[in-house]
Design a protein that fits this description.
12 strands; five-stranded parallel β-sheet; globular; NB-ARC; alpha/beta; three-stranded antiparallel β-sheet; 820 residues
């Protein structure tokens, strides 16, 4: 095919002639100090889709001091979400735009029109939606507009790639969580659920001037929750999508066309070099014409040529001249994008191609350098060299030093390459097995550091990888929470015959992810997948451990009925396993105590204590003693409850386990409150609160605030009780709805005691609405809360404001008998 020699320009087309080549430098991958890999936009997306060169510039979140959770109000059924109180917060102005497209040209009239729409005091639309086929330059135009207009939005710019072109588009709930954090909302104040997050997001944007760039959207349904509300008329959403957004209200719609021949030639020349392109100008025009002037296809073709200095442009032109190949590779739509990646893959040497294929098997948002080394079976230095070479040709991205990610479509292509190669099955299984070993060995080390004296790790499957080593407990926890998504994604990918047991054990090694409340839904999903796979394979040991992990999660999130079912099943499947015999029994004791079935609780906790002692598991023994203390307090045996809590705490002190020590202090604080030794209780509960906060355990932090609220009510300090109750409510979504009901109830009582009758009525109404909606059996704690006088009575009617009974703080109750 002969190229267009006239190099004419189409009206309304676009091009770019920035300086540089197709090879990037990893040193140019970050700008600023605090990159956020979840919000970046990289060369593979900007250059391949738009045809323009753009160094990787991740989304930035300005540093801001952590804000107290009390400064934020969570959305409720009756209350509108409130913005952070100005007196208690620092304004956060996110600056997350990708790199500006240098020397942007073309589309002059369109750019002028859209700039006028974005500039005040014009009647701004709620959204500008730019649509067109993949690779048409939507992102280039949107980024150019955003940088041109950013001075009109002094309160910041948000950015997200919504992944609409791939098979796993971004979940609006997850995106809203990232946006709220970027706007300064603490994690603890971010609610669960798309509707609640969207409401808080809209409230947070009120009064601000923020530009929201929503790139690569799938459809209108995906982006509706992400749009600023009517209360934020100075905010605008700039949207790019392959789909037309005709269903959006108050949206200005824009359609884009392909590049002109002149712009296509300029882009190709930029990549391969001006001199080289001019020498074979006719061949260049053949290449860009074969690419149908689509920037994405041009970019990939030119990079292939640039990396092969011995090739002529004519060689590439002849390769693309085959219509059967060209139609497969360059046709419009998603398949065209996927086929075009073959050009890049075909230029890789064997080591690069192997790395590309195997890394495509990994789940999660990205992968660390050590984890990638485990996948490839290589040392860190060789892995870094290979991955850097893939970054240089835009097949891989590195938004943060030491971490790598694929664009979603490139990952799918890499995975398809792995699946079609000879001996692919064995290669895939070995790679995932090595990754599983890395995660299991390292997670087990984190677990052991957090739980000195706990022998569970000695019962986990052996691994062929030593795992990472950490100097401090903080560094270990930092790793676990940073790798949480990737680690959990590994579990369902490793449920085959040779990896299934290790995958189940990884759930146990990563229990901190369940206890913290950080990833309850993801943990539940993968635990169920592991249990179901083990059940199908009649692997009772692995199924029992997966069920135990699931029951552990359910008990911590207040889903007692489900927890009991899973834990009982675990004991039935493999009650001889020392891990199950001890841990499942211990957790069942917690659950049945919470349900008010004290005889069952005493039996299970007795079994757990015996099993822990038989295994010489001191940390487990301390846990069982603490839970027995809670049981004795529930049964009115206050003195023995305090003694048991002190025994458990003494073991934790000897072992030197900060987080477990916090659990021991928390338990003793409850017992001391029940014994009306309130000042001692305050000391232990306050220290527990500090340790939970340092260990990043928001679920337990919320519970400590709840117990402090109870203690202050018993001490007739209602103002302090209100403060702690509000803090517990801010964290209440992590502990399940029954716990949230408890937090609402104690807050209403504290407010009544403080003389704030109308607010007390409001929270009591919310509590009752929540209780009616749940419709499931009430945990004992809830029954005890409801046994006290309702907050609509005068405060004087309750001489001991607070909760009586098992979890109450009324006058001391005499022992009903010694514990046997």
């Amino acid at each position: 095919m002969v190229g267009d020699e006239r190099l004419g320009r189409r009206t309304g087309s676009t091009g770019s002639v920035p300086d540089g080549s197709c090879r990037g430098d990893e040193a140019n991958l970050a700008l600023g100090e605090d990159p956020d890999p979840a919000l970046d936009r990289t060369r593979i997306e900007l250059e391949w889709e738009s045809g323009y060169r753009a160094d990787v510039v991740p989304g930035l979140r300005p540093h801001a001091a952590p804000q107290p959770a009390a400064a934020f109000s969570r959305p409720t059924a009756v209350g509108r979400p409130q913005r952070p109180l100005a007196a208690d917060t620092t304004t956060v102005r996110p600056a997350q735009l990708p790199a500006a497209v240098s020397d942007f040209t073309g589309r002059e009239d369109l750019v002028r029109e859209l700039n006028d729409r974005l500039a005040p005091p014009s009647d701004r639309p709620a959204a500008i939606a730019i649509a067109g086929i993949g690779g048409i330059g939507k992102t280039a135009l949107a980024v150019h507009l955003a940088h041109t207009a950013r001075h009109h939005f002094p309160d910041g710019q948000l950015y997200i790639d919504l992944g609409g072109a791939g098979s796993s588009p971004a979940d609006p709930e997850t995106v809203l969580g990232a946006f709220l954090r970027s706007l300064g909302t603490p994690d603890a104040a971010i609610p669960d659920g798309t509707e609640e997050r969207a409401a808080l997001y809209r409230a947070t944007l009120e009064g601000r001037r923020v530009l929201v760039l929503l790139d690569n959207a799938r459809d209108a349904a995906q982006i509706r929750p992400l749009l600023p509300g009517d209360g934020a008329p100075e905010c605008v959403a700039l949207i790019t999508s392959r789909a037309h957004m005709a269903g959006l209200d108050r949206a200005h719609l824009v359609d884009l066309d392909a590049m002109s021949p002149t712009e296509a030639f300029a882009l190709f020349a930029l990549i391969v070099g001006e001199e080289r392109a001019m020498v074979e100008r006719a061949a260049v025009m053949e290449v860009v014409a074969s690419c149908s002037y689509l920037p994405l296809a041009i970019r990939i073709a030119a990079c292939r040529l640039a990396s092969r200095r011995t090739w002529t442009v004519s060689v590439l032109a002849r390769k693309l001249a085959d219509e059967r190949r060209r139609l497969d590779e360059l046709r419009a739509g998603d398949l065209a994008v996927k086929a075009t990646f073959g050009l890049g893959y075909g230029q890789l040497d064997p080591a690069q191609a192997r790395a590309f294929r195997l890394l495509g098997l990994v789940g999660g948002p990205d992968i660390s350098l050590p984890a990638a080394g485990a996948v490839l079976g290589l040392d860190v230095e060789e892995t870094a060299r290979l991955l850097t070479s893939l970054v240089d040709i835009s097949l891989l991205e590195s938004a943060v030093p030491g971490r790598y990610r694929f664009h979603d479509l490139v990952r799918l292509y890499a995975r398809s390459c792995a699946e079609r190669e000879s001996q692919a099955a064995a290669e895939r299984e070995e790679a995932l097995s090595r990754l599983l070993d890395f995660y299991l060995a390292t997670a087990a080390r984190v677990y052991a550091m957090e739980r000195p004296g706990d022998r569970m790790v000695e019962h986990l499957e052996p691994t062929g990888h030593p795992g990472l080593r950490f100097e401090t407990s903080k560094a270990a926890l930092d790793w676990l929470f940073a790798e949480g998504d990737c680690l959990l994604e590994c579990v369902p990918r490793c449920t085959g015959e040779t990896t299934r047991r290790r995958a189940g054990d990884l759930l146990l090694g990563a229990l901190d992810l369940a206890e913290s409340g950080a990833r309850p839904r993801q943990y539940e999903t993968v635990a169920r997948a592991a249990g179901d796979a083990a059940h199908a394979a009649a692997d009772s040991r692995t199924e029992a451990r997966a069920r135990s992990a699931l029951g552990h999660l359910y008990s911590f999130t207040g889903r007692y009925a489900q927890a009991e079912r899973e834990l009982r099943l675990a004991l039935e499947l493999d009650g001889e396993d020392p891990v199950i015999a001890s841990r499942a029994s211990n957790q069942l004791g917690i659950v049945t105590n919470g349900l008010g079935r004290y005889d069952d609780a005493e039996r299970f906790l007795g079994q757990a204590l015996e099993a822990f002692r038989a295994d010489a598991n001191e940390a487990g023994e301390a846990s069982a003693l603490a839970n027995l203390s809670r049981l004795h307090v529930s049964r009115g045996r206050t003195r023995s409850g305090v003694e048991l809590a002190e025994q458990g705490l003494a073991i934790y002190r000897r072992l030197g386990a900060p987080l477990r020590l916090a659990n021991g202090m928390y338990t003793l604080g409850i017992a001391l409150t029940r014994a009306h030794r309130l000042e001692e209780a305050a000391v232990h509960l306050t220290e527990a609160l500090d340790l939970f906060r340092e260990a990043r355990q928001p679920l337990w932090e919320g519970m400590a605030h709840f117990r402090l609220a109870e203690m202050h009510l018993a001490a007739h300090r209602p103002t302090k009780a209100v403060t702690h109750a509000e803090q517990s409510l801010a964290l209440g979504g992590l502990g399940g709805e029954w716990r949230r009901f408890s937090f609402l109830t104690v807050l209403s009582k504290a407010l009544m005691a403080a003389g704030q009758r109308s607010r007390a009525q409001e929270y009591w109404s919310q509590a009752q609405t929540l209780r009616e909606r749940l419709g499931s059996p009430e945990p004992e704690e809830v029954r005890q809360l409801l046994a006290t006088s309702a907050p609509d009575l005068p405060a004087a009617a309750d001489p001991n404001p607070g909760h009586r009974g098992a979890f109450g703080v009324g006058p001391p109750v005499s022992e009903s008998g010694p514990w046997n």
